[in-house]
Amino acid sequence: MKLEPPCSVDELRRRMRRGRAELAAHWQRLSPEQLTKVPGPQADWSVKDSIAHILWWENAMLELSAQALAGDDIVIDGTVEDANAQAYADNRERPLDAVLADWEAGLARIEDFLAGLSDKQINDTDICQFFGHPLRHFIAANTYRHYADHQEDLREFVRQCRPQDEAGA
After folding, report:
1. Three-class SS string for 52-94?
2. In the chain, count of helices (H) and strands (E)?
3. Among 2, 16, 25, 156, which residue has the fewest nearby CB atoms (within 10 Å)?
């Protein structure tokens, strides 16, 4: 993955907000049935499952970033696929309303975290790093870059859900 170029906390915040808003805009007009339909954007995940997956990674980023900023060693067990399977298992039975409420609350959690950071903390690997990379890269990978990873599948699913008379409008 390409390394995130140096930037300010404000720029990270803008990118995160924009990416989050763009992603959420895709599912805003879907019905609860469409949001929980499987197959959804991925063969074995609904839109709800995708939202929960993204939230799981956001929360992991917040937790691991706090540990790294505190000077703790970061240990990650397993693979990304293992983590994705755990995220799915943790959330598959959660009600849609709970996942959507967590999505709405998630923005404030990330905003609060970013508000406590300095530009130096996110850019200087002597202060905080993840496997040799600055904190900004880890934040980006688990927010707006991760949202972008799911955009096309979600866009295509929503396009398929739209009634034919709406699709041409």
Report:
1. HHHHHHHHHHHHHHHHHHCCCCCCCCCCHHHHHHHHHHHHCCC
2. 9, 2
3. 2
Number of domains present in the structure of the chain: 1
142 token code pair: 């688990």
Report which secondary-structure segment, H or E, holds 130: strand 129-130
What is the CB neighbour count within 10 angstroms for residue 84?
A: 14
Residue 167 lies in a domain: no
Q: How far apart are alpha carbons 169 and 166 in whole angstroms? A: 5
Asked if residue 67 belongs to a domain, the reply is yes
- Report the phi/psi class of residue 15: left, alpha or beta, with left for phi > 0 and alpha for psi in -120 to 50: alpha
Q: Which two tokens stand for residue 153?
A: 């599948």
Quick check: is 102 in a domain? yes
Calpha distance 113→166 (Å, rounded): 40
pTM of the model: 0.90
| CATH number of the domain to which 154 belongs | 1.20.120.450
As a residue count, the chain comes to 169
